[in-house]
Amino acid sequence: MKKPEKIYNTAVEATLEVIGGKWKPVILFYLTFGKKRNNELKGLIPAITQKVLTQQLRELKEAGVVTRISYNQVPPKVEYELTEYGWSLKEILHLMCRWGDTHIERIYGSKADVLAPPRFEAT
């Protein structure tokens, strides 16, 4: 019998291996609304450093859920978008956002706010 290359306790671990961490789900969530340039993402997530944003985008690209589009022009233009595989995360990311809204309301009530609440299209 062939020995498995990797063993997970649950498939949730495999999901978190790709989208886990503080910033990856946020980056992916914003990409569900379309292509974004690096500075657009930085503007949407002001607390993230440029170094961390670059690293997270690189890891998401390596995982096959984000693609980097580089345009041959001056000045250089680079955009990021979800791959077809990355789009399969849309539902879970939007559900996480909705759950977060409910959680904020339950725990903090009117004592907390979401700076940029997204406008979801009908799903």
UniProtKB/TrEMBL annotation:
Q: Is the keyword Membrane assigned to this protein?
A: no
Pfam families named in the record: HxlR
What keyword terms does UniProt attach to this protein?
Answer: DNA-binding, Transcription, Transcription regulation
An MF annotation (GO) of this entry: DNA binding
Q: Which Gene3D superfamilies match?
A: Winged helix-like DNA-binding domain superfamily/Winged helix DNA-binding domain (1.10.10.10)
Record's InterPro entries?
HTH_HxlR, WH-like_DNA-bd_sf, WH_DNA-bd_sf
**Domain (HTH hxlR-type) ranges:** 10-108
Family annotation (PANTHER family): TRANSCRIPTIONAL REGULATOR (PTHR33204:SF29), TRANSCRIPTIONAL REGULATOR, MARR FAMILY (PTHR33204)
Name under which the protein is recorded:
HxlR family transcriptional regulator
Organism per entry: Paenibacillus prosopidis
